[in-house]
Design brief:
The protein is α/β, with parallel strands linked by helices. The protein is built from 14 helices and 15 strands.
């Protein structure tokens, strides 16, 4: 019997294992040279002046928000179609959260909806956090133009977008944002097991992030001269969000295959798109100014009943399709804050019909053919499609 095929899976090579083992045998397991090397590889890959490694992308969002001064009395806007951490990290800063609905075609923050919400807002956001869903970059130029007009910071939740590009530049280059945060979870494009990185072109913001990820501590030549080389001070309340050297060594090894991984994911996406031409499912519309990293490949069904039946069809046949995401504002915690079902209809409609097909760069041609055949068989044998406009 054919084994279970997950929707996402890490790919670890002998070179990755050797890099981690070498670090385990070295003098440093944390805050050592492997972390610096990984951060340099991220600066190069994302064309960023600064890359600050962190323990995970949630920590990265929390640190970036704090570094930009988000706190009690402030508000952050993001999208409902995201993982919980984009909004939760703002709540951990003591700030309020609100949402901007998504585009029905890109599944990303709708820039028109953002502009309309800004025009009518009684209170403007301190930060807007667009999410590059599935690896597809948002309309960042328009969002940036609105930030200059209305005076908010932009933090890109780029957890899905390692290796994506926008207007010829890597996501994370900082041309249209103050900071970007990436994830290296095992199902992402490269992995450090858990881990993340913040990129920014601002040296001042980078220094604040470095302090915040490490207890708010800092050292300087002046302090060492005055008190001794062991001396440090803390002038802000920070956290322990540091990345280990083992994670960083794995990340550096993985980063060497970033282009190869992205090329493979694009080939898989292309095959899926060709197959979809013969089937009645919707797909995420591409941004013509961008290239996606294809963290996910999402289809949309006719309705929630069809989606549930298709989900069960795949799982009964050993294929782990998934749903991304349950709209954040429908979670009990956010409902208790006053949000309700119906507040963001595009995100809610998308959620009711979406299904993520297996997408990872180690997928074989046979793996993908298996997914496509199951989708075709479902169409032909298991369900009578009836679409409404």
């Amino acid at each position: 019997m054919t084994g279970f095929l997950p929707y996402g899976r890490q790919s670890i090579t002998d070179e990755d294992v050797a890099a981690v083992v070498a670090t385990l045998k070295s003098d440093f397991l944390t805050t050592g040279p492997a972390v610096t090397t990984f951060e340099e590889s991220c600066k190069s890959a994302f064309n960023a002046s600064n890359a600050i490694s962190v323990s995970n992308a949630t920590a990265g969002l929390h640190v970036a928000y704090l570094a930009l001064g988000l706190g009690e009395g402030d508000i952050l806007w993001t999208v409902p179609n995201t993982f919980l951490s984009t909004a939760n990290a703002a709540r951990l800063c003591g700030a309020d959260v609100d949402f901007v609905d998504i585009s029905s075609t890109t599944f990303n923050m709708c820039a028109t909806a953002l502009e309309e919400k800004l025009r009518s807002a009684k209170k403007l956001p301190k930060i807007v956090a667009p999410v590059h869903f599935a690896g597809q970059p948002c309309d960042m130029q328009r969002i940036w133009e609105l930030s200059e007009e209305y005076g908010f910071y932009v933090v890109e939740d780029a957890a899905h977008a390692v290796g994506a590009t926008y207007k010829g530049q890597p996501v994370g280059s900082g041309k249209y944002s103050h900071a970007a945060v990436f994830s290296f979870h095992p199902v992402k494009i490269i992995t450090t097991a858990e881990g993340g990185v913040i990129t920014t072109q601002s040296d001042d913001l980078a220094e604040k992030c470095r302090k915040l990820r490490s207890h708010g501590m800092y050292k300087s030549a002046e302090l060492a001269e005055q008190h001794g080389p062991w001396y440090y001070e803390m002038d802000t309340l920070g956290l322990n969000y540091r990345m280990t050297d083992m994670q960083a060594a794995l990340g550096t090894s993985q980063m060497s295959r970033l282009k190869e991984n992205i090329d493979r994911r694009n080939a898989i996406a292309s095959n899926y798109h060709k197959a979809m031409l013969e089937m009645p499912y919707g797909c995420q519309r591409m941004n013509p100014d961008a290239t996606s990293s294809w963290h996910l490949f999402v289809i949309t069904c006719a309705n929630s009943t069809e989606r549930r039946a298709l989900y069960e069809h795949f799982h009964q046949n050993g294929v782990g399709v998934q749903v991304h995401y349950i709209p954040v504002h429908t979670q009990p915690y956010y409902q208790a804050l006053g949000f309700k079902v119906g507040d963001f209809p595009m995100a809610e409609d998308y959620y009711s019909r979406c299904l993520s097909l297996p997408m990872f760069h180690a997928m074989s041609e046979d793996d993908q053919n298996r997914v496509i055949e199951l989708l075709k068989n479902f169409n032909a044998e298991n369900y009578q499609h009836s679409r409404t406009a």
